[in-house]
Fold each of these.
Amino acid sequence: MAALLATVTISLLFAATSIPTIAAGAGEAVIFAFGDSLSDVGNNNYLPFSLAKSDYPWYGIDYDNGRPTGRFTNGRTIGDIISAKLGVPSPPPYLSLSMNDDAILRGVNYASGGAGILNETGIYFIQKLSFDDQISCFEKTKVAITRKIGILATKKLCNDALYFIGLGSNDYINNFLQPVLADGHIYTFPEFEDLLIDTLEGQLTRLYKLGARNVVFHGLAPMGCIPSQRATAADGQCLGFVNDYVLQFNSRVKKLLVGLNSKLPGAQMAFADCYNIVLDLINHPEQYGFKVSHTSCCNVDTTVGGLCLPNSRLCSDRKEYVFWDAYHPTDAANEVIANQLFADPDVGRVHPALGIAPSPSPL
């Protein structure tokens, strides 16, 4: 789940009554998403040299028109499902927009497959938008919004926003745990963890200075249990040491958010913990209507990336599988995760819009 884990990033903006009618209606959520392949809705399609793409079959087979969109799953991302719960369309990819488009007032997705907290993460994908890059894109969007609605209205939009951020999985799976890359040799695990947390603190502080006040950080899922990691184990079971890394990272991020809340006036940053949700999905799939959680619906080759290729063979019933490819959950699994995150009281306390009781979303 470099993706699962990785995870998903959403920002809700409630339009002020002084904002022109081209902005979202009063009380209507505007979403800005930051993240990696779990929340990418097509940004990497616009990066010509990126090797982290899903703009081909069988990705998107269960999405609206059955065609690939750049989402790394067979259907919806977690962000898509939460957008629907909030009654708004899923925001378009940043790289598909002009900063003159009125659409930027109603939501933008900055997520990029292969992205990490560290800029060097995913370097072998050639092109991707790191978290630093995504924040820079948001900064450009804010400038464009200011040109449209003015300084005061833009400030209110940003201060009222909810930023839902999901990153970190690629920093392990596509960086530290890769023997051919430098960071795993340069740093011990505690040193690498310190680097991630220190970098993330700077990035969240930067977002705060751009106006972010209400932040939900989507923690990492048990990466040691995703198909790509199981494939490296002699017995095909979960990699315990990878899950230990995840638990330590999640714990450090929780403490970081508490610290930022105490020192940044008006900051309300919450941790959305999906670790136990996903672990329960994997250990007890039948309780959620699934049958298979140890391997993926798409018969992938983990030696050549683990993505679902056009010549791959699919399972007979995609709703029975937790995982779509070697990293990413299926549409059906994303719905379970989104429902439970949406009902998390810690998340709900950040912004009233997220306190709505979850309701099933049709496929």
Note: Residues 1-21, 356-363 have pLDDT under 50 and may be disordered.
Amino acid sequence: MMEIRTPKTHKAKRVLEKRAPKLVENGKRTLILHGTKTSATLSSVLMELYRLKKGGAIKYSRRNENIRPFESGGETSLEFFSQKTDCSIFAYGSHTKKRPDNLVLGRMYDHHVYDLIEVGIENFKSLLSFSYDKKIAPHEGSKPFICFTGEGFENVPELKQLKEVLTDLFRGEVVDNLNLTGLDRAYICSAVSPTKVFLTHCAIKLKKSGTIVPRIELVEVGPSMDLVIRRNRLPNEGLRKEAMKSSKDKPKKKVKNVDQDDVLGKRGRIFIPEQEVGKTPLPDKSKGVKRERREGKLKKKNKEEGSASKKHKKSE
């Protein structure tokens, strides 16, 4: 029987809870790996991809001979690294005579390979080959714009898959609201042909337009490259349905000082500051107090009238 290991420390328990499935998942992290042999161009591509994803990526510099994503049994080491690092996207680079400057992009589901797409790198330009004002350089961890231009991204199945993978690769953590000043970068993907995509990285420069919405200018800061599609593997229908399942129950925000009881129902706690009853002045506007005052005035008036009549009789 397979041994089930339970966490023995609080730290291990927190790590397992962090990796457990959630209704709202965390941002997808990227695993960057080298193959048996990599060229200088491909090493630069992997390094600059790591810089673009800094804070949301893990890079291993050792060569991995056992990883062959498209072959049966060749994804075992890949799935092991995915489970070890808790990464759901990977980029694997290799260089051979048959497939030079080869980059495999893929997604994982439950630490198993979900889908794969293989591209060749051509016309690569690194960050150092671009000259621009360093003041407009994108900040680390900023939210990007992702623009896909070309009909191929809607009609060609390979380009549609590449669009999904690139979106998951670059979009970062999903958020509800965005600050316009925090958007300082854009990824432009142009479908040159059914098998070729031009990818470039630009900085966003906001300028005055005379209205509330500023005018946007794009400054190419690199890297840029051509992605030539070679091979791809789509997920099977059963795996796709399982991965696309979503819970109807939305996470509820915890309301402070409110509890739910099976018997009593919804209960709330109210905190009242200490009351100084002895120092609190009593109001004089009650009807009972007014009636007592009225009766007291009448009694006083009657007494005065009685004493006046007695004096009048004695004087007679």
Note: The two ends are 126 Å apart (CA to CA).
